[in-house]
Structure formats: C-alpha cells, structure tokens
Amino acid sequence: MPSLGRIERLRRPQPQPLARGRPLRLAGAGLRILTALLLAYALGFVWYLLTLPGPAPAGTRTDGVAVLTGGPGRLARGVAVLEAGAARRMLVSGVNRTVTREGLAAGAGVPGPLLACCIELGFEAHDTRSNAREVAHWAARHRLRSIRLVTADYHLPRAMGEVRAALPPGLVLVGDGVADARPLAHLAAEYAKLLASRARLLLRPRGAEA
C-alpha cells in the first residue's frame, strides 16, 4: 500500500508546464500584423503618388479663389483665374507679415488694379489648419457659395480635407492643383501628414475648425 505521504503528494495540484509555444505564436501574430500595416502604408503611398490632383477642369467658375502660399506657381494660377473672369475675388492665405501689397504686386507681377479691387491678403495662417480657418472666415465675410482652392498638387488632398471641414455644409469647394516636383522624402512626409489629418478629422464634427 502507498504511504500516507505519497497519497498526500498525489492529492496536491501539480504545477502545469508552461505552454512553450504561446510566446512564439504571439510573436508571429504581431509580426504578421506589423507586416500587413507596413504593406497597407506602402500601397497607400503609391496610390497617393499616382492620384495627385491636377488643375481644376476647364471652364470652372466659382465665387472666389483661395490661394495657399508656400510654393511656386500658386499665386500666378490665382491671378490667371481672376483675369479670366472665373472668380470675382481672391484670398492669398498665409502671407508673411513683412510682405506689403505693393511688394506683392511688384515681386509677383500682380496687376495693381486687380490687387486693389479683388485680392485680399491673409496674414494669420501659418500652417494648413490655420489656412482652413482663414479661408472659412473670408468666405463667411463675403458670403461666398463656392471656392476654388489653389495649392501644390501634393498638398491639395490634405488642404481640401482641412478646408472642407472648416466650411459650412453646402459651400462648394473645387480643388486646383499646381504641379510642384518635390523629393520623395518630402512626399512621404506629406503623406504621413495626410493620414494624420484624416484620422483627426474623423473625430471632429464638420465646421469645428471655423
């Protein structure tokens, strides 16, 4: 017969061996998730590069045109829109505070009469989000119902999202992308900003930026 001590040892719960495969399975699952995320990011970036927006369709007419400063060709595009009669007034958003109306007319070749009658300079914006607020306030002051937004092609997707979120419902926003070749690293940084902007705007109600 087994001894009393042996019986007691048999009755005690025996420690279970650690599941040696669990850490490996968790590590494998984490690696697969990380790989999927990186692949989705890379594919999204390629799609972003392939679908950079171009100029607004020929014949587009809006109440106003808003030009976001920061790159070549933007102001010239806005002036051309005014001269063609495709908009009645223009806002240049994000102008450096040291720039005067006379200096803008001389340095950018903006006709003086056009600058006097139809162009407003905005000095409050310092990034895309504050550009959006400046454009929204300008549109409200002039009771505009449609706006053409001019900026670089690589910047236009993010700018459209920010400005549209700041504008009231029903106001028509048309994108007008100006070709602006930038290094791949710059475009990758802009794509990351675009994703962050879209994620943030999903959590904000429309018009919250105004």
Q: How would you characterize the overall build of this protein?
A:
The protein is of the alpha/beta class and 210 residues long. It folds into two domains: 23-52; 64-202, 3-Layer(aba) Sandwich (Rossmann fold), CATH 3.40.50. The protein is built from eight helices and five strands; from the N terminus they run H-H-E-H-E-H-H-E-H-E-H-E-H. The protein has helices at residues 4-11, 21-50, 74-83, 101-108, 112-118, 128-142, 156-166, 184-202; strands spanning 64-68, 89-93, 119-122, 146-152, 172-178. It has a five-stranded parallel β-sheet with strand order 3-2-1-4-5, with helices on both faces. Strand 4, helix 7 (156-166) and strand 5 form a beta-alpha-beta unit. The N and C termini lie far apart (88 Å). The mean pLDDT is 87.
Topology, pairings included?
Layout: H1 4-11, H2 21-50, E1 64-68, H3 74-83, E2 89-93, H4 101-108, H5 112-118, E3 119-122, H6 128-142, E4 146-152, H7 156-166, E5 172-178, H8 184-202
Parallel strand pairs: 1-2, 1-4, 2-3, 4-5
